Amino acid sequence: MEELSGFFRLCGKDRKDDWGSAGKFIAAEQGFTLLECLAAVTVFTILLGTVLGFYLFGVNKFQAAVEQLDLQQNVRVAADLITRELRYARTLHLRSSADVTYRLPGDGTSYRIRQKNNEIVLLIAGTETKIAYDIQTLIFNWDAGRGILYFDLVGSDSNYNYAVNTALRLPNLMRE
């Protein structure tokens, strides 16, 4: 038993004044100082600003990529349609460098592809269908000796340009 009392004496168990004053000291130190709060708010603000900066950067890059892909898709859709429509044309008449009229074999209907403002339109018997928008330039060039129609498409918006150049052999025109 004396060994236990010696143990408690070493631990300070019988020194009630010191133990009690330490408890009062700990109770008085609850909460944070103003300086600690300001430091925590500063660190939190820096972390939040960094995370928000990365997020906004990612959103802006994603939006720019979407705009660029939209422009590329418009130019490619127009090039694909022109290629599919003109590949088997029986007759072809270049009205201007951005306007072509044609007829398909076995079909008496007149078709027309042209640039109107910043759009590519297909006219079938007078009915206009918009094919692509944001098209800056459409240029047709006909090489009669080789039977090849060349066309250039340039799409443009406020930030990007995208161009497609195509050479199209028209086998049905060569038989005439």
Tags for this model:
three-stranded antiparallel β-sheet; five-stranded antiparallel β-sheet; 176 residues
Strand order of the largest sheet: 1-2-3-4-5
Give the amount of beta strand, in percent.
25-35%
Radius of gyration: 39 Å
Per DSSP E runs of 2 or more residues, the count of β-strands stands at 8
User: How far apart, in Å, are the first and last alpha carbons?
Assistant: 124 Å
Can you summarize the main beta sheet?
5 strands, antiparallel
Poorly predicted regions: none
The share of residues in helices is 40-55%
Q: What is the N-to-C succession of helices and strands?
A: HHHEEEEEEEEH
Contiguous helical run count: 4
Write down the overall geometry: rod-shaped
Round the mean pLDDT to the nearest integer and report it.
Answer: 84
Write the layout of secondary structure elements.
Layout: H1 2-11, H2 16-28, H3 34-86, E1 91-96, E2 99-103, E3 111-116, E4 119-124, E5 127-133, E6 135-143, E7 148-156, E8 161-169, H4 171-174
Antiparallel strand pairs: 1-2, 2-3, 3-4, 4-5, 6-7, 7-8
Describe what this molecule looks like in 3D:
This protein has helices spanning 2-11, 16-28, 34-86, 171-174, and strands at residues 91-96, 99-103, 111-116, 119-124, 127-133, 135-143, 148-156, 161-169. It is α+β, with helices and mostly antiparallel strands and 176 residues long. The chain has a domain at 63-174. A hairpin with a 4-residue loop joins β6 and β7. 13% of the residues are buried.
Provide a brief overview of the structure.
This protein has four helices and eight strands; from the N terminus they run αααββββββββα. The protein has 176 residues and is an alpha+beta fold.
